[in-house]
Write a structure and sequence with these properties.
105 residues, 87% helix, elongated
Length: 105
């Protein structure tokens, strides 16, 4: 058999293999999006935790329970950097979404 004869063959096995291949590709796409989405949710949760830790450090310092200003500054900076990073990622996601919506088919 040559290549043209192979491409004209219609076999249930070939059709099944093509369907399985498409199913696996679709699962990988869904798993990829799920992984990215879960990562984004984890990032938001971590940012929230850092913000709460910074607020707690501020309250402890204000009440006189903590006297180390260095720890307070570190907690505030960690929270600030995490928030800036989260906002930057959000902005890029919105920008990508808008680019996709502006595509013409």
């Amino acid at each position: 058999m040559n290549i043209t004869e192979l491409t004209n063959v219609s076999s249930p096995y070939i059709e099944s293999a093509i369907k399985n291949n498409n199913y696996v590709a679709k699962q990988e796409e869904e798993q990829g999006f799920d992984t990215i989405f879960q990562s984004a949710l984890d990032m938001i949760g971590e940012t929230n935790d850092l913000e709460n830790a910074a607020e707690s450090a501020e309250i402890q310092f204000a009440l006189g329970e903590a006297t180390n200003t260095h720890d307070l500054l570190v907690a505030q900076e960690e929270a600030n950097v995490a928030l800036q990073y989260t906002v930057a990622v959000r902005d890029k996601v919105i920008e990508a979404y808008q680019s996709i919506m502006n595509m013409q088919m």
